[in-house]
Amino acid sequence: TIQQLLKTNQHYLERFCNPSTLEIETQIDIPDKAMTTVVAAGEVILPIEGLIDMDKELERLEKDLQKWQKELDRVNKKLSNENFVNKAPEHVINEEKEKQVKYQEKYDGVKARIEQLKA
Protein backbone atom coordinates (compact mmCIF):
# COMPACT_ATOMS: atom_id res chain seq x y z
CA THR A 1 0.00 0.00 0.00
CA ILE A 2 0.98 3.63 -0.29
CA GLN A 3 1.04 3.90 3.51
CA GLN A 4 3.58 1.07 3.74
CA LEU A 5 5.68 2.64 1.00
CA LEU A 6 5.68 6.00 2.77
CA LYS A 7 6.52 4.44 6.13
CA THR A 8 9.35 2.46 4.55
CA ASN A 9 10.76 5.70 3.13
CA GLN A 10 9.84 7.93 6.07
CA HIS A 11 13.49 8.69 6.84
CA TYR A 12 13.90 10.18 3.34
CA LEU A 13 10.83 12.37 3.80
CA GLU A 14 12.11 13.54 7.18
CA ARG A 15 15.56 14.24 5.78
CA PHE A 16 14.42 16.20 2.72
CA CYS A 17 11.35 17.93 4.17
CA ASN A 18 12.69 18.43 7.71
CA PRO A 19 9.26 18.52 9.38
CA SER A 20 8.98 18.95 13.13
CA THR A 21 6.71 15.88 13.05
CA LEU A 22 5.69 13.47 10.31
CA GLU A 23 2.66 11.22 10.63
CA ILE A 24 1.75 8.63 8.01
CA GLU A 25 -1.69 7.32 8.89
CA THR A 26 -4.91 6.16 7.28
CA GLN A 27 -7.00 8.31 9.67
CA ILE A 28 -5.85 11.54 11.28
CA ASP A 29 -7.45 14.55 12.93
CA ILE A 30 -6.85 17.55 10.67
CA PRO A 31 -5.88 20.71 12.56
CA ASP A 32 -8.16 23.72 12.08
CA LYS A 33 -5.40 25.70 10.40
CA ALA A 34 -3.89 23.31 7.90
CA MET A 35 -3.29 23.21 4.18
CA THR A 36 -4.23 20.06 2.34
CA THR A 37 -4.06 18.67 -1.11
CA VAL A 38 -5.91 15.67 -2.39
CA VAL A 39 -3.64 13.24 -4.24
CA ALA A 40 -4.35 9.94 -5.95
CA ALA A 41 -3.47 7.91 -2.88
CA GLY A 42 -4.99 10.13 -0.21
CA GLU A 43 -4.48 13.56 1.26
CA VAL A 44 -1.38 15.50 2.29
CA ILE A 45 -1.90 17.70 5.36
CA LEU A 46 0.44 20.52 6.36
CA PRO A 47 -0.29 22.53 9.54
CA ILE A 48 0.03 26.18 8.52
CA GLU A 49 -1.15 28.29 11.41
CA GLY A 50 0.73 31.55 11.12
CA LEU A 51 2.42 30.50 7.88
CA ILE A 52 -0.08 31.35 5.12
CA ASP A 53 -3.01 33.60 4.35
CA MET A 54 -6.16 31.55 5.03
CA ASP A 55 -8.24 33.69 2.65
CA LYS A 56 -5.87 32.84 -0.20
CA GLU A 57 -5.96 29.17 0.76
CA LEU A 58 -9.77 29.20 0.64
CA GLU A 59 -9.61 30.92 -2.74
CA ARG A 60 -7.23 28.23 -4.01
CA LEU A 61 -9.49 25.47 -2.74
CA GLU A 62 -12.56 27.11 -4.31
CA LYS A 63 -10.77 27.14 -7.69
CA ASP A 64 -9.81 23.51 -7.20
CA LEU A 65 -13.43 22.68 -6.38
CA GLN A 66 -14.60 24.37 -9.58
CA LYS A 67 -12.04 22.39 -11.58
CA TRP A 68 -13.28 19.06 -10.21
CA GLN A 69 -16.90 20.12 -10.72
CA LYS A 70 -16.17 20.83 -14.39
CA GLU A 71 -14.48 17.45 -14.78
CA LEU A 72 -17.43 15.74 -13.11
CA ASP A 73 -19.91 17.59 -15.31
CA ARG A 74 -17.97 16.61 -18.42
CA VAL A 75 -17.77 12.90 -17.55
CA ASN A 76 -21.39 12.79 -16.35
CA LYS A 77 -22.54 14.37 -19.61
CA LYS A 78 -20.58 11.78 -21.58
CA LEU A 79 -21.97 8.88 -19.56
CA SER A 80 -25.54 10.16 -19.84
CA ASN A 81 -25.25 10.44 -23.63
CA GLU A 82 -27.01 7.39 -25.08
CA ASN A 83 -25.10 7.63 -28.36
CA PHE A 84 -21.78 7.51 -26.52
CA VAL A 85 -22.82 4.63 -24.26
CA ASN A 86 -24.24 2.61 -27.17
CA LYS A 87 -21.34 3.16 -29.57
CA ALA A 88 -18.24 3.35 -27.36
CA PRO A 89 -16.24 0.21 -26.62
CA GLU A 90 -16.82 -1.21 -23.15
CA HIS A 91 -13.28 -0.40 -22.00
CA VAL A 92 -13.80 3.28 -22.91
CA ILE A 93 -17.03 3.41 -20.92
CA ASN A 94 -15.29 1.74 -17.97
CA GLU A 95 -12.47 4.30 -18.16
CA GLU A 96 -15.02 7.11 -18.02
CA LYS A 97 -16.73 5.49 -15.02
CA GLU A 98 -13.35 5.24 -13.27
CA LYS A 99 -12.75 8.92 -13.98
CA GLN A 100 -16.19 9.69 -12.58
CA VAL A 101 -15.35 7.96 -9.30
CA LYS A 102 -11.91 9.60 -9.12
CA TYR A 103 -13.27 13.08 -9.83
CA GLN A 104 -16.05 12.64 -7.29
CA GLU A 105 -13.52 11.63 -4.62
CA LYS A 106 -11.35 14.65 -5.39
CA TYR A 107 -14.38 16.96 -5.39
CA ASP A 108 -15.64 15.57 -2.07
CA GLY A 109 -12.19 15.87 -0.47
CA VAL A 110 -11.75 19.49 -1.51
CA LYS A 111 -15.31 20.39 -0.50
CA ALA A 112 -14.82 18.84 2.95
CA ARG A 113 -11.59 20.80 3.39
CA ILE A 114 -13.29 24.07 2.46
CA GLU A 115 -16.06 23.38 4.96
CA GLN A 116 -13.49 22.60 7.65
CA LEU A 117 -11.56 25.81 7.03
CA LYS A 118 -14.77 27.86 7.09
CA ALA A 119 -15.94 26.28 10.36
Provide a compact summary of the structure.
The protein has helices at 2-8, 10-17, 54-80, 82-87, 90-118, and strands spanning 34-39, 42-47.
Description:
The protein is mainly α and 119 residues long. The protein has a domain at 51-118: Helix Hairpins, CATH 1.10.287.380. It contains five helices and two strands, in the order ααββααα. It has a two-stranded antiparallel sheet. A hairpin with a 2-residue loop joins β1 and β2. The longest helix is centred in the last third of the chain and has 29 residues, at 90-118. It is flat and about 55 Å long. The protein starts with a helix and ends with a helix. The relative contact order is 0.12. The model has no long low-confidence stretch (mean pLDDT 87).
List the main descriptive attributes of the protein structure presented here.
single chain, two-stranded antiparallel ribbon, 65% helix, Helix Hairpins
**What is the CATH top level name of the domain at 51-118?**
Mainly Alpha
Task: Please state the oligomeric state of the protein chains shown.
Answer: single chain
CATH architecture of the domain at 51-118: Orthogonal Bundle
Q: Helix amount, in percent? A: 55-70%
- SSE run: HHEEHHH
Number of helices: 5
Radius of gyration: 18 Å
Structural class: mainly alpha
Give the CA-based shape. flat
